[in-house]
Amino acid sequence: MPELRKDPVLGRWIIISKERSKRPTDFLVEKAETTGGFCPLCPGNENTTPSEVLAYRKNQFAKINEPGWQVRVVPNKFPALVIEGDLDKEGEGLYDKMNGIGAHEVIIESPRHDINFADLDPAEMAMVFRAYRDRIEDLAMDERFQYVMVFKNHGRAAGASLEHPHSQLIALPVLPRLLVSELEGSLSYYNYKERCIFCDIVRQEIKQEIRVVCQNDRFITITPFAPKTPFEMWVLPKTHSSSYRRQDEEQLYGLAEIFSESLQRLDRCIPGVPYNFVLHTQPLRSENLEHFHWHFEIVPKLTSIAGFEWGSGFYINPMPPEEAAAFLRESL
């Protein structure tokens, strides 16, 4: 029988359609085609991108916008929002609007064109996570920005337009509605129980074990109780922290270790699977939040959003998270 599950943070209902349950090999993944040709993100082509805003190089005296970098961050050549100008908020009757002010940047994760993010070793991946932290810290100094969203689209089905491994960030002058819902849901739980709901989730999942994918001393990866898609995973710190900006080098390395293992397990289950991941962290103008817990959400692109989903706000998931976690645990 199908099962309705309620997301404990958002209050969103998910349909777990057990009659449609599948094994990993039942999911059809379109084989990625390599296009070849010119790549603006490859070393030697630095002059074809906007000037870098951050780069990590082994040689600290190397020139900017030249090869030798390990991770490089540049403004997006076709930004969703632009950094120059004023917000100029105004009303138009009952409607509100403002200028599209923000920042849109590309994090080039490796000088290698032919490597996947999941195949970076933990030290290389930790540099990418450090770039996220350092760029958020820098953009936080701009008072116009309320939030920095960090995300990755892997595979064309997940929205990636370039093959070279990269992720993106967008600084926003407003808070995303989904984040506001998470903040409100977690605050409601905290006001009732005087505990962080994410900390309670971590404790319960460690105790029950059925939805744990993998863990190390600092982090845990789980399949959430009410996942939107098959093989959705959350990566959470085991100790309470509301701000990704406060992570030190050791914590970022531990994050890279668990992230690498999680993505490798996913790729073993469904080779070449397209996915998105998004960082959820506290707003830039917030003090430490006792009710909120930063985390990453990894969402494979395995199901389609159709009329029922758009009309109801429900998601239909043919894979119970307990089964997905079991497949992921057994994959390595």
Describe the structure.
The model has no long low-confidence stretch (mean pLDDT 93). The chain is globular. It has one domain (3-23, 40-81, 99-329): HIT-like (HIT family, subunit A), CATH 3.30.428.10. The longest helix is centred in the last third of the chain and has 21 residues, at 249-269. Helix 1 crosses helix 4. A hairpin with a 2-residue loop joins strand 5 and strand 6. Helix content is 25%, strand content 22%. The protein has helices spanning 122-139, 177-193, 197-208, 249-269, 307-312, 321-329; strands at residues 3-6, 13-16, 54-57, 69-75, 90-92, 95-97, 103-108, 147-154, 166-172, 212-215, 219-222, 233-237, 275-280, 295-300, 315-317. The protein is built from 6 helices and 15 strands. The chain is an alpha+beta fold. The strands form 3 sheets. The chain has a 10-stranded antiparallel beta sheet with strand order 3-4-7-9-8-13-14-12-11-10, with helices on both faces. It has a 3-stranded mixed beta sheet with strand order 1-2-15. The chain has a two-stranded antiparallel sheet with strand order 5-6. It starts with a strand and ends with a helix.
